Amino acid sequence: MRFLGRILCLLALPILWVLAANLLTPPLDQQARLEPALRPEEYFVGTVVGFGVVTDPFGIVREEFRQDVAGRIENGLLVMDERFTYRSGARDQRIWTIRFTPDGLYQGTAADVPAGGAGRAVGNALAWRFALPLDTGLFLSSLDLDQVMLRQDAETVINQVRISKFGIPLGQISIVFRKQG
Fold this sequence. Notes:
Elements lengths: L1 H22 L16 H4 L2 E10 L5 E14 L2 E10 L4 E10 L4 E6 L2 E10 L2 E11 L4 E12 L4 E10 L2 E12 L2
Antiparallel strand pairs: 1-2, 1-10, 2-3, 3-4, 4-5, 5-6, 6-7, 7-8, 8-9, 9-10
């Protein structure tokens, strides 16, 4: 009987971890009255530079990076050309094409994000979610990225990204963006 109890406890821990991670996420609606408003179709037009860190589930920094964003409105869509330069020397690029509505809903596509992304802006916040494909060499999988951007002032946005798989937290990305010029 003791053995069965231990097995049940071990099975319950990941479930409790997932529940705690989801319950600790504040509702976006509480940002509704906060200013300045974050509208990606305004903030990300032009040049924006971000500096970020990737941490594992234990808070250990695993990578640092710079993110250069060049945004423009093209045919009524926001096009964001994101270029990443990692401290390790690696480089990456993602180009988002994002459709937006006056009521703050967003849908985007990128070549390396086949399922696309979706989000909602409320007050000074934007919640954005997408699944990033991951090629492990053995099989193709994906990681879920759940992010909340909070606009602090005319130039600054703080971005917190939770990385998970099957709801299990795997890490976090923290980025501070600054609008240039």
